[in-house]
C-alpha cells in the first residue's frame, strides 16, 4: 500500500485507501517521520477501505467496511499525490494571518484591495473537491445520515457544498442551507440550485430557532481562533437551533499534536481539474511553535503554498487554527447554552480518548 496523505487548509482528514490508483509522493525524505497514515494502518481502528456504512460506537468494522479517515489518505482515484501544509504561532486571527501573506510573493487581493482567503480564490475552490474527493472522506459518511434525518439543516462553512449536494441527491426533501463567507467556494456550491446558499460569516448571522441540525465539517470549527470568534459563533449556532436541534462538528484532538506532521501529511498534487493537463500542487505545514491560546487550547499557524497552471507564481496563504481539548470545548459550548449530547474519537463512532484523532461532537441546547 502506498500511503499518501492530504488535507486542505483547515480542511478535512482523508484516510488511507488500499484501493484506487497509487499516487506518487511529490517528495520523499529519508528522514521523514512515519506517516500517520502508516501508523494508522497499524491501528485496528484506522486501516482499511472507505465505507459508506454507518457504524456503531463499538462495532469493529471489517477491513472492507472500514471508513476512510479524513486527514490521512493514500492513493486517490484522482491521482492525488503528497505535496504539504499546516498552521502558525501566537495569538492571531485568521484575518491577521492572511495579512502576513506575501513572503513568497503569493498574496492576492481583490479589486477592492481586500485580501483574499484561500477559500475565496475560485482557482483553489476549483481544486478543492479533487484534493478531497467525497469517496475518500469518512467524515461525510458520519454526517450524511444525520443530515438526511433532519428536516432543516444549516451547513456552516459549507465550502463547495458537497455534503448538501449529496443530501439532496439522497432524497432530502426539507430545507438545506449552506453558509460560507468565501465566494470561490460558494460559487462551486451554487452549481446546485435546489439548496439555499448564503454568503456570510457564522459570527454575524441571526437565524432564530430555524434548524434541526447545524453542522461544521472539514475542521471549519478550528478556523474560529479567538475567544471572541468562538463565543460569537457558538451563540449564533445556539440561537439558530430549533428546540431539540443539534450541532454536529469535529475538531482535531490536540493531544496528538498532529500539526507537527502536517508537512508530511498535508501535501497534495492533483491533475488540474480545469483540464490544462498540468498539475496543481499544494503543500501545507505548521509555521512557528504552537502557542497557548489565551482562553484555553492551542493556537497553530500554517502556511499553505500552491502552484499550478492557474497560478503564474507561487500562491502563499497563511492561516491559524485553534485546538481545544474536550474539557475546553465543553466550557465554550456551555457559555453558549450548549451541552455535549454525543462525543466520539473518530468518525467511526469510536470512544473519545487521548489517542483518538478527532473530537467529534454532537451538542444540544442545555
Ligand atoms: C476546510 S473548508 C471546509 C468546507 C466543507 N465544510 C468541507 O467539509 O469540505 C472550511 C470552510 O469554512 C469556511 N469558514 C471559515 N470561517 C467561517 C466562518 N466564520 N463562518 C462560516 N464559514 C466559515 C471557509 O470559507 C471554508 O469554506
Automatic annotation (TrEMBL):
GO biological-process terms attached to the record: antibiotic biosynthetic process; methylation
Keyword Signal included in the entry's annotation: no
Keyword Transferase in annotation: yes
SUPFAM superfamilies for the chain: S-adenosyl-L-methionine-dependent methyltransferases (SSF53335)
Cross-referenced Gene3D superfamilies: Vaccinia Virus protein VP39 (3.40.50.150)
GO molecular-function terms, A-Z: methyltransferase activity
Domain Methyltransferase: 153-245
Name the record gives this protein: Class I SAM-dependent methyltransferase
Keywords of this entry: Methyltransferase, Transferase
Composition-biased stretches (Basic and acidic residues): 19-32
Disordered, as annotated region: 1-114, 344-366
Signal peptide positions (record): none
Database matches in PANTHER family: TRANS-ACONITATE 2-METHYLTRANSFERASE (PTHR43861:SF1), TRANS-ACONITATE 2-METHYLTRANSFERASE-RELATED (PTHR43861)
Amino acid at each position: 500500500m502506498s500511503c499518501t496523505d492530504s488535507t486542505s487548509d483547515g480542511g478535512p482528514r482523508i484516510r488511507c485507501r488500499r484501493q484506487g490508483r497509487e499516487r506518487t509522493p511529490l517528495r520523499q525524505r529519508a528522514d521523514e517521520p512515519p506517516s500517520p497514515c502508516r501508523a494508522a494502518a497499524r491501528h485496528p481502528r484506522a486501516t482499511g477501505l472507505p465505507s459508506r456504512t454507518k457504524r456503531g460506537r463499538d462495532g469493529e468494522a471489517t477491513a472492507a467496511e472500514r471508513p476512510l479517515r479524513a486527514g490521512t489518505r493514500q492513493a486517490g482515484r484522482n491521482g492525488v499525490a503528497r505535496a504539504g501544509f499546516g498552521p502558525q504561532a501566537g495569538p492571531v486571527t485568521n484575518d491577521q494571518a492572511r495579512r502576513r501573506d506575501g513572503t513568497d510573493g503569493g498574496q492576492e487581493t481583490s479589486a477592492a484591495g481586500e485580501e483574499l482567503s484561500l477559500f475565496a480564490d475560485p482557482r483553489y475552490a476549483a481544486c478543492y473537491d479533487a484534493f478531497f474527493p467525497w469517496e475518500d472522506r469518512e467524515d461525510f459518511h458520519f454526517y450524511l445520515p444525520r443530515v438526511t434525518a433532519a428536516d432543516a439543516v444549516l451547513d456552516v462553512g459549507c465550502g463547495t457544498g458537497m455534503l448538501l449536494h449529496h443530501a439532496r441527491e439522497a432524497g432530502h426533501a426539507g430545507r438545506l442551507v449552506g453558509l460560507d463567507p468565501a465566494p470561490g467556494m460558494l460559487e462551486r456550491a451554487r452549481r446546485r440550485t435546489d439548496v439555499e446558499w448564503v454568503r456570510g460569516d457564522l459570527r454575524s448571522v441571526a437565524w432564530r430557532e430555524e434548524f434541526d441540525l447545524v453542522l461544521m465539517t472539514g475542521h471549519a470549527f478550528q478556523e474560529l481562533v479567538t475567544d471572541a470568534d468562538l463565543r460569537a459563533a457558538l451563540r449564533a449556532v445556539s440561537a439558530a437551533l430549533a428546540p431539540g436541534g443539534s450541532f454536529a462538528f469535529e475538531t482535531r484532538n490536540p493531544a496528538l499534536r498532529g500539526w507537527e506532521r502536517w508537512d508530511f501529511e498535508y501535501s497534495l498534487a492533483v491533475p488540474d481539474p480545469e483540464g490544462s493537463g498540468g498539475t496543481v500542487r499544494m503543500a501545507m505545514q505548521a509555521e512557528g511553535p504552537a502557542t497557548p491560546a489565551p482562553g484555553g487550547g492551542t493556537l497553530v499557524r500554517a502556511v499553505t503554498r500552491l502552484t499550478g497552471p492557474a497560478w503564474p507564481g507561487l500562491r502563499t496563504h497563511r492561516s491559524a487554527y485553534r485546538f481545544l481539548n474536550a474539557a475546553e470545548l465543553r466550557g465554550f459550548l456551555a457559555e453558549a447554552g450548549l451541552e455535549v449530547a454525543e462525543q466520539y474519537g473518530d468518525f467511526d463512532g469510536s470512544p473519545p480518548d487521548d489517542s483518538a484523532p478527532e473530537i467529534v461532537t454532537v451538542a444540544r441546547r442545555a
